Amino acid sequence: MSSTTNSPTHHTSTIGAIGAPSRRNTELALLVFAVVIPVFAYANVGLAINNHVPAGLLEYGLGLGLLAGVAHLAVRKFAPYADPLLLPLATLLNGLGLVVIWRLDQSKLLQSLKGFSPAAPRQLLYTALGIALFAAVLIFLKDHRVLQRYTYISMFCALTLLILPLVPGLGADIYGAKIWIRVPGLGSLQPGEFAKIVLAIFFAGYLMVKRDALALASRRFMGLYLPRGRDLGPILVVWAISILILVFETDLGTSLLFFGMFVIMLYVATERTSWIVFGLLMSAVGAVGVASFESHIQTRVNAWLDPMREYQLSRQITHDGILHSDQLQQSLWAFGSGGTLGTGWGQGHSDLIKFAANSDFVFATFGEELGLAGIMAMLLLYGLIAERGMRTALAARDPFGKLLAVGLSGAFALQVFVVAGGVMGLIPLTGMTMPFVAYGGSSVLANWALIGILIRISDTARRPAPAPAANPDAEMTQVVRPS
Amino acid sequence: MSELTLTVMRLGFLAVLWLFVIVAVQVIRSDLFGTRVTQRGSRREAGRQQQAPRQQPAAPPQQRGQQGGGRRGRNAPSKLVVTEGTLTGTTVALQGQTITLGRAHDSTIVLDDDYASSRHARIYPDRDGQWIVEDLGSTNGTYLDRSRLTTPTPIPLGAPIRIGKTVIELRK
Hints:
The structure holds two protein chains of two kinds.
Chain A: E1 12-18, H1 24-50, H2 57-78, H3 86-105, H4 108-111, H5 120-140, H6 151-163, E2 171-174, E3 177-183, E4 187-189, H7 191-216, E5 218-221, E6 224-227, H8 233-249, H9 252-270, H10 273-291, H11 295-305, H12 307-315, H13 327-338, H14 362-369, H15 371-395, H16 399-423, H17 441-462
Antiparallel strand pairs in A: 2-3, 3-4, 5-6
Helix pairs in contact in A: 1-2, 1-3, 2-3, 2-5, 3-5, 3-15, 3-17, 5-17, 6-7, 7-9, 7-16, 7-17, 8-9, 8-10, 9-10, 9-16, 11-12, 12-13, 13-14, 14-15, 15-16, 15-17, 16-17
Chain B: H1 3-30, E1 34-40, H2 43-51, H3 59-72, E2 79-84, E3 91-93, E4 99-102, E5 109-110, E6 121-125, E7 131-135, E8 142-144, E9 147-148, E10 153-154, E11 161-163, E12 166-171
Parallel strand pairs in B: 4-5
Antiparallel strand pairs in B: 2-3, 2-12, 4-6, 6-7, 7-10, 8-9, 8-11, 11-12
Organism (chain A): Streptomyces yokosukanensis
Keywords (chain A): Cell cycle, Cell division, Cell shape, Membrane, Transmembrane, Transmembrane helix
InterPro entries (chain A): FtsW/RodA (IPR001182)
């Protein structure tokens, strides 16, 4: 602008909304990328182990591509304004999971174990079912606010799902943690994975109604807002339930996940830091308290504190009646031998973990074969899913959708933390699985449903707002009449 | 397979994985949405900007405001404060831009006031950086202190400007 300007410059600012564009083509491009990466990995595994490109490369690539294409078309048709990143991120993680499960299927050591059968074809089937569930969520859940009507029904569903593994004859005690149910003819199921979603619906509906009471009535003490005694009720009830899960199902992960999800949602709903302080204190007290008398938890804690001792005990014949496992130590060695850049696909020895190498401990294989660089990228992929969930929550216009998106993405992030922390020896190991990459039908199905709900909320949030009904500019100005 | 091929594939895979992460983050960067603040120039200026579309509209007025501030010395007002009415407590920083007041949605300060017109008044700096208030032909008029404005008038620091039920003043 020239300095000779002598006119008064009149600048006004307009604050207008930028409608988020439909980003379906971006999504498609990323999706192609997300299918190509696992195909590359699959070829790499075949070349490293068998010296030739695996025979099923084309089928596998087409299969994954077809599933991704179906999911993409479902989003294009039923949620055109949804976030462009959620689907490609989930597809990539799921594809990498399929590769790593197929890679562990190739291990001679695992093949020699009793009851071995290739897991990759079944995981591909679960993925197909998961994508079908994802599409079903998008088709039948036209508006996420419908879920709000089922607030208390969700509570009962969630409690039922949580109690199911304890029902005699139905529940299955698999290596200590009772978080499975056995459905005759179908195999076993982990109801906790589904309870996660249903519980998020209940918490969102409940906190939306009660958050004002929980946020406003409080006293200030040492910089923290202390809630009134009676407002502690809900958090105490959820805490008690999570402790009961810990005692009866002896699974630290499930317990931590539900309590943590409630605390996150409570914090977001009330904006009071004190809830986080309370939540951390209560979970610490609960975990320490239960660990003092529950032998299964003690075993897990001991294995966490001293994995090497546990490793040596597993090599000896012990008579203490406890199943000693060298898994955690093997997992730590796997991470260690991976180093910064990893050994490369198919060249690690994470199959030494043996049992659950492709489910609970699947992350150790990534740690060994892709190294620190690889798992950092994977953790970032998980982080991006959680971030897109939080971004969806910020953009959502209704409080229920906000809380639900926060709850789902918070639970997702917490689950990643609990599992990754467990296999890396940061926290005691739990019986949960890494979302999308671990072998297991319940996990894959539940997480695809979770992504489906997040995509539905983000579609509603990013849809351009309807035009305002009346234009106030057109109204007449009232005239002041001197009285 | 030779060692070299496998090493290349290993590093290549990591590179591709990170490339995906970076592309995803780039998508997030281009995906920011929400509210946008657009600077709109006067008609004459807009014409000039069309001739030279590469000029950035936001920067020049700010510079001018700072220069003016230097000339006006310490008594230059730096903000506009709403002291009465539904918007009481609102402050708007004065950075050399024109501030429009009215019920219209595109006003800088949108008044929720039945006695204000849609385009009621505007406040702008003249060439010397002195802030001027001008009534835009409003129904109920704009008052500076007690007198109804008929011409654009310089605003003394702290003098109340009344628009309908709303009172604003300029402060340092």
